[in-house]
Structure of DUSP domain-containing protein:
Amino acid sequence: GSMPLVDITSRHSDENSTDESDAVDVDDEESEQPEESEIILQEAEAEAGAGHEVPRLEQKKIIRNIFAQDNRIVGDEWNLISTFWFSKWREFVSFDVSSIEANSANVLSDAPGSIDNSPLIQSSGDSSEVKIRNQLEYDVDFVVIPPRAWNFLLKVYGGGPAIKRPLIQKYIEDKAHITVELYPIQVKVMINTDGSSESWEFSETATIESLIAYTCRQKPSLTANVREYKLYRYFQGEKREEYEDHSATLQEAGIHDGSTVYLEAT
């Protein structure tokens, strides 16, 4: 009599675990799709890695799947890819038309060749550090794609260089957008203890607290016998209102590229 009982409890715990995973992903069909496309992706990557051509339609399907699955998450890094190259690729695989149209149209468009991100970068002697050009425009110069899409295209076409940038939340007309941060901002920090000032680069999403901490790391003398740090807006040669909320980001505090702040250590 005890055997079926054991059986029932084990089956029951199984049901529980499927219940929980169902709660995360309500639609059964949906939850199977990523796995299937994951397999397609792995196969295609293996083919590409082995130097075999991945058919256009397959490329289109894979990138579409990745686009559908990979959400923008603040803090993740996504890849910049040249709009010029990516447009050529889209045309080559008929990315923006249905497969029926694709069969009759664009059969003649050329393969895009290896990925060329050179229009996005400043040519620098030191190749280890890829510096992007100033005033790059979204869509005009580059588009942003998930790392999995970049890795796949790189396997198929080669080229580069890879340019990754963090995703940040920006408010545009009071609406939150998740977008890439292309350029850090330059902030000048005046320091009360020795009257010095230094300019450093920070992310707009850095907090006041992390700006203070960074300044202290750069200026070890600041940490001697200090009980508290206050940060003020500095404008026209005078310290102004205090930034009281140290958990606020520089963007929230209204600290922009070229701003000056005054750090008071007491």
